[in-house]
Each structure stands twice: as structure tokens, then as C-alpha cells.
Amino acid sequence: AGLLHLLALIFGLVTTWVFVRRYINFNMKTILLGDYSVPSAASHSVKTKCGLSKSCPDNFFAFKITSGAANVVGPSVCFEGQMIMSPVKNNVGRGLNIALVNGTTGKVMTQKYFDMYSGDANLLVKFLKGIPEGTLVLVASYDDPGTKMNDEIRKLFSNLGSTYANQLGFRDSWVFLGARDLNSKSPFEEFLKNSPDVNKYDGWPELLELEGCVPQKVY
């Protein structure tokens, strides 16, 4: 029994010494060489501007535009990580919600909404005609963007690069990013027609979300 006890004691001392030695060596390597372990996916996650699925390259601006949901939840417009318009900011309304951004600096110039159901269409005409060159135009619909639409407004939006402005009607869903001096159709646009057969909500199509990277205007 005494021999077994002695052997157990020796085994315990040897095991402890091996553990301590390995622990010291590991910590010395960590101190001298640094920790080169691969981080987990969670610790390596990158926060993107406006919550985009991936980061934008240099000289590109990140944006996300979400239309309203029926007449219940208002739209939102985010640009370069800054929420320009949203229900939380209490600066959105029925109709068309529009934000203007300097295409070179990315600075927000103004944001307004225009009631396209019972408002004055001339206010929108004046606003669109006053947009300076080199300006990015971000648009989100809410509730009804089309009742007060006329040919002049449709043409002004088409000149900003819109493909669907000519079709926009009562309670349609629309999100769009264009520019004052765009010479072609914008690739940033989504449109859903109000149709009882396919509407997600009672009387309205589903909301639309548009995100992407728009190139900085360089002069």
C-alpha cells in the first residue's frame, strides 16, 4: 500500500510539472509571438453602413431605401450610415418621400415629403425643377404616390433616370435612386403595381427594399 501511495504521488507530481511547463511555454509564445489564432465568425463580423449585406468599395456611397408598408409603417432612407428619413425621425409622410444628397461629398442637402393624394402637385414640380446638377435623388413611396401624378412630374422623374415613373399610379410601391445629370436609366429602382390579385396587404402591394453602392461623382 505504501509503494502504491508513493507511485501515485510521483505520478501526480510529474503530471502537474508537465502541465505547468506546457502552460508556461504557451504563455511565453503568446507574449513573444502574439496570438495568431483565427477569430470566430462572430468576432470577425463587420458592421456595414446602413446594414448592407456587404461593404461598398472606395469612392462608392452606401444606401438603403425602404418603401412604406400600406398606410401603417412609413418608409426609410439611409445614406452612408446616416438615417435621413424614417418614422422614428418623424419626417416621413403619405406620398413621395425624397432626400437630396451631394453626389461628390455625400452630404445630405435636404429631405421632404409630398402628399400625392390630396396635396398640391405644383410643389413637387417646383422641387424637382430646382434640383442642382450632381445631386443624388433618393425616393420612397408611402401609402399613395400616384393620384396627383401628372405628365410633367413623370417626365421630371424620367429625366432623373427612372424607368417606372410613367407607370406610377394609385397605391403603387416604388423606391428609386437617380441623379440630376444622369444620361441613362438608373440601375437602382424597384416597382410594384397595386393589384388586388397579388397585393400582400389589403389594398396595397408589399413594401420594397433597395440597397446598393452608388459611385461618387468625381469632377
Walk me through what this model shows.
One of its GO terms (cellular component) is extracellular region. Its main location: secreted. This protein has 219 residues and is α+β, with helices and mostly antiparallel strands. 23% of the residues lie in helices and 26% in strands. The protein has one domain. The protein has a five-stranded antiparallel β-sheet, with helices on one face. A hairpin with a 5-residue loop joins strand 4 and strand 5. The termini are far apart. Mean pLDDT is 84; it is low at 23-44.
What key phrases describe this protein's structure?
single chain, 219 residues, alpha+beta, five-stranded antiparallel beta sheet, four-stranded antiparallel beta sheet, 9 strands, FAM3, ILEI/PANDER domain-containing protein, disulfide bond
Strand content: 25-35%
Taking pLDDT < 50 over at least 5 consecutive residues as the criterion, the unreliable ranges are 23-44
CA-CA gap between termini: 91 Å
Structural class: alpha+beta
Overall average pLDDT: 84
Q: In the residues, how many domains can be counted? A: 1
Largest sheet: 5 strands, antiparallel
